[in-house]
Amino acid sequence: MDRHVLVVRGGALGRDTGLGAAHAGVVRLLASHEVQGWSLSAEVDHPLGGMGPRRLLRRWWFHPRRVRQRLKQRAREGGRLVLLVTDQEQAHLVPRRVPRNVSKAVIVHDLFVLAPRTIPLADGAMKEWSGRRGLVRWLDIRRLRRGLKRADLLICVSEATADRCRGVFPKVPVAHVPTGISLERYAPDAEDPAQPEPGCALLVVGNDHARKRMNFLAKAISACPDSVRRDLHLVRVGGGQTEAGRRALTQSMQDADVRLTLKGRIEDEELQRLRHTCEALLFPSAAEGYGYPPVEAMAAGLPVLVADMPNHGSMVPPEYRLPVDDVEAWVEAIGALHAAWSDRTNAGTNPVPRPADETLLRHVERFSFDAQAQALAAALDGLVDDGTEASVD
Description:
Layout: E1 3-11, H1 18-31, E2 39-46, H2 52-75, E3 80-85, E4 102-108, E5 118-119, E6 126-127, H3 135-150, E7 153-156, H4 159-168, E8 174-176, H5 183-186, E9 200-205, H6 214-222, H7 226-229, E10 232-237, H8 243-256, E11 259-262, H9 268-277, E12 280-283, H10 292-299, E13 304-307, E14 321-322, H11 327-345, H12 358-363, H13 369-385
Parallel strand pairs: 1-2, 1-3, 3-4, 4-7, 7-8, 9-10, 9-12, 10-11, 12-13, 13-14
Antiparallel strand pairs: 5-6
Helix pairs in contact: 6-8, 6-11
C-alpha cells in the first residue's frame, strides 16, 4: 500500500532557525525516500509577514482551512496518509475530523510555552518561558493544546521531552525521534585544518534568554585564576542578543581582563570556521528543546562543556557534562581546556591547530540524518500499523 506524508507548518521559517532547519530536514528525508516505506505527499506552509490582524486571521482560520483542503485532496488519491505538523507551535493545524485513511502526528520540540516549568537554581528559580500572555496568546495556546490532544502520535525530538509529553498528554501515544544533522556538512578537514583563533578561544552560541545562563557563564569565567583568564578569548555569536545583555557581558569580561569578541547572527560558513578554530563550545543553558549547538559542535570535532540538564545534557557523553550550578566545576573544566591549549601551543607562541575530538565524532553518529530516518520510519510504521483508525470525514 502507498504510504505518504503531508508535511505542514505555519510560517515558512528559514533554515537559519532551529525550527526551520528541523522542518527542512524532515522534508528532505521524505522527498529523497530515505524514510523507508514513506514518501513526501506535499508540503504546506505560508510566507511570513503581514499586519497583526491579518496574521491572526491567517493563523486561526485561512491557513487551517487551506491545510484541510489539501488534506482532503491528497487523501482522495488513496493509500495511507499521515498529516505531520513539524512544530508544536502549529498544533492547531491538526483537524478535528479527517478521512479514514489519514493519521495525525505532531513533532514536539519542547513544552516551554505550552506547559512551562520553574527550574530551581542556586541563584534563584528560573522559568522556562517568561513571555507575557495576553488574551490572544492565551486563546492561541489553548488551541495548540487541543490540537496536540487530537493527534494520534506526538513525535518528540528528545527523550526528556517525550517524558514531559507522557505526563502532560497521557492519552496521546509518544515516540522519540532525535533530529538529525548532516555529519558531512560539519566534519573537520583533517588535511587542511584552519588556523586557530587568537588565544584560548571559547565559543558561545545563543541568545540572551535567561535560560541560556550568560550571567552564570560570566561568573564562572571571572572566577578562573589570573593565569587562565589572561589567555582566554570568549567568542559569542548568535541572534537574539539584547543591547543590555551585550553591555553586561562586555563589562564582566573587561573586569575579568578576558578578551571578548561579540558577533550577532553570522553566516553558516563563518560559524563552521569557528567550530574548527576554537578550543571548545561552552553551553551552560538550563533548558533546551533539543540543543543544536552541542550536536553541531560534536559533529565538527569541537570539545564541548554542557550543563547536565534534560535534553541537551543527555546528548553528550557524561564526561563532557557539568553541574548547571557548580561554578567551581566550570572553573576546573575551563582550566583543563586552557592547560591543553597551553601545552599544544607552547603558551600561545606556536598556534598549532586543535585536533578533532574523535570521541565526540563517534558519539554524534547517533544524531545523523540516517539515524533520524530510521527512527522516523519506525514511528510512522507504528502509527499506521497499530490498528488506530481516524474518524470518518
